[in-house]
Amino acid sequence: MTSLDQLEEGAKATLIAVDGQSTLRRRLMEMGLLPGTPLQLIRRLDLGGVLELEVRRSRLSLRHAEATHLHVIATA
Predict the structure, then answer these.
(1) Whole-angstrom Cα distance, residue 10 to residue 44?
(2) What confidence tier does 35 reach under pLDDT thresholds 50, 70, 90?
(3) pLDDT in tens, 47-63
(4) Is 11:75 a contact under the CB 8 Å cutoff?
(5) What is the rounded CA–CA span in Å between residue 2 and residue 26?
(6) Are 34 and 15 in contact (CB under 8 A)?
């Protein structure tokens, strides 16, 4: 298990857990980031440390600091 911010571009993973303060955790889960959800890290944007994800056929952008609260297992 690793945090989302440590994945390589293009890597696919399954979300295992969301941690952090309850307000952050709730906001991430409202965005569709629920345990068991498959996702893919599309790209990293150096400007501001932003990660672009594909989750449930939608694209999301997260800050690097938020991605550290998402724990994933890489899939093939």
Answers:
(1) 10
(2) very high
(3) 879 999 999 999 999 99
(4) no
(5) 20
(6) yes
Burial class (CB in 10 A: 0-12, 13-18, 19+), 48: exposed
Q: Which residues pair with 61 in a beta bridge?
A: 52
- Listed in sequence order, the residues at least 6 apart from 33 whose beta carbon sits closer than 8 Å to its beta carbon are 15, 18, 39, 55, 60, 70
In the sheet that holds 70-75, the strands lie side by side as: 2-3, 70-75, 12-18, 38-45, 50-55, 58-63
Cα–Cα dist 5/61, whole Å: 12
State pLDDT tens for residues 6-21: 999 999 999 999 999 9
